[in-house]
Amino acid sequence: MKSESDKNLEKELNDFMQSDIYKKQEELRRERMKTVKSGNDVVHLEYVGELNFSETAEIESILAAGGLRLSSYDKSGLVYACLDQFTLTSSLLISSTLLNDLLFGLSTNAAWDAIKWSAVGIWTKVKERKVNKIQSGKIVGKEITFGLKVYLDKNTGINMQLSGNVSEEVISESLDKALDFLREQGLNQSYKIEDFAFYHEGKKQWKKVDVMVELQKLANKKTVKSQKQQETNRKK
How do the domains of the chain map onto residue ranges? Predict the structure, then answer.
């Protein structure tokens, strides 16, 4: 038997799904899905409206030269849960099938070169642009974080950030080392949230962050802070 709180939660969820806000979001998602393609030769671009038609057409042309197709999805106006510290605002997504072809030499060098120069091109365009975000009831400009979102298999994904505050030479260098870094990664036995990786310019290597571990650290800090605050309140 459902508890009263479960019933209330179910009612709130049903009410939300019948609301105009939800219906407009679903209508927008369906419209945006028209630009999504499927296939082993597809590279998927997710962005938040910061790229215009001519810019995405340029990326499409670069990928086509490497025998790849561009699929794009504009997330602007859609509501998403976001962990700012460990997610990418915009990304080029490489499926596990295509990635494994690249890792084990089943795809041509031209395919990886096309992905690399597409990434450099997007990075160049978005590194100084911002997107609007609602924070504490106010609209603020947020720097765009861009990179590669790669999947080794259905359980193992990594968000590889291409930092906006380094030179194009460093970005190119980091991409040259990306495949070797990915070859070193193990596979998860079961699904877990994507890890996060960044390029250490000084050490000239990619460093991986276990997002679940970091989130647990943040949760523990919040718990300790809350306990200290409660203890302080009791002493007053």
Answer: 10-235
